[in-house]
Write a structure and sequence with these properties.
This protein has helices spanning 4-17, 25-44, 62-70, 81-103, 143-147, 153-158, 164-175, 202-217, 253-256; strands at 108-116, 122-131, 134-141, 178-186, 192-196, 229-233, 236-242, 261-264, 275-280. It is of the alpha+beta class.
Length: 287
């Protein structure tokens, strides 16, 4: 375990399962209040105004942000279950904070902050918590993300398509606190862990944020951030080019790559082959 509070929560849950620990009404009321606030935010808040850089999107690829600002009408609509996924994330955060409180772990709750950049721009956001003088974020993750992306800081850094690292560094810088890490909960089975971001180069991250903000604010020409990737099967190239994994969840991928076609894998032998985003097909296979 990477954080003392991990052991506190783990121990609390063990005792609760044996009937040796309870949760106070004060804590359950706080959990309920947080869930209520989240539901109210998701269902009763007015639609967001025009595109705006926020702490929650500032770390995303510049090409995606460019489309968000300049071609919002081309965005592929999100499926209805996307909202359910967001709500589940809010509920997980509320419950996990309740567990921390019940276990006796001390922290300060979420707060709104403003990141003031060297070139004069300001980015607003709301962090999840402050513990031991450091800013932490709470994330709910799929089993795959829990085991692979959130395996360590290094793993997250290699594939941070959602910009979690710049988001956390931005919160910390704006709050005048140290960078903490992420409390990650596996949505598949309830496992949890703490992933420290102590190795992050905060100065470099802030420089990257400044570069992104300038790129968007100055209405620079579109620049694709990722190249097509050669498809391989048993370590051999198939002749096909597929979408970079960093672009998998981008709502603008079809506009960015006009030749993109999503179809079952052309090389998989599985009964139900996975869907693959093909940019170029050159394998010579007739389908």
């Amino acid at each position: 375990m990477n954080h003392p509070a991990e052991l506190q929560v783990f121990s609390y849950l063990q005792k609760a399962m044996k009937g040796e620990a309870t949760m106070t009404e004060e804590v359950t009321d706080l959990v309920a209040s947080d869930v209520k606030a989240a539901m109210d935010k998701q269902f009763n808040s007015p639609p967001r105004d025009a595109f705006k850089l926020r702490m929650s999107n500032i770390g995303r690829p510049k090409c995606q942000l460019w489309f968000d600002k300049n071609k919002p009408e081309d965005k592929v609509p999100l499926p209805p279950h996307f909202l359910m996924n967001i709500i589940l994330g809010d509920i997980v955060e509320a419950v996990f904070k309740g567990l921390l409180r019940a276990a006796g772990a001390e922290f300060k709750d979420n707060d709104n902050v403003t990141l003031k950049l060297a070139d004069g721009q300001e980015i607003n956001g709301e962090y999840d918590m402050e513990m031991d003088g450091k800013i932490d974020d709470v994330k709910s993750a799929s089993p795959w993300s829990y085991q692979n992306k959130f395996d360590s800081f290094e793993s997250l850094q290699k594939g941070d398509g959602f910009g979690y690292i710049p988001q956390l560094v931005g919160y910390s810088k704006a709050a005048g606190k140290e960078v903490g890490g992420w409390w990650v909960v596996n949505k598949g089975n309830g496992e949890f862990k703490y992933v420290s971001a102590s190795e992050v180069d905060s100065d470099k991250v802030i420089e990257d944020i400044q570069e992104t903000v300038n790129y968007i604010d100055n209405d620079e020409p579109f620049e694709r951030c990722f190249k097509a990737v050669p498809e391989t099967f048993y370590k051999k190239k198939t002749g096909n080019l597929v979408l970079s994994s960093s672009c998998k969840f981008c709502s603008h991928k079809y506009k960015c790559w006009n030749s993109l076609k999503t179809q079952p894998s052309r090389v998989s032998k599985a009964k139900n082959p996975p869907e693959v985003d093909y940019i170029f097909i050159g394998d010579g296979i007739d389908t």
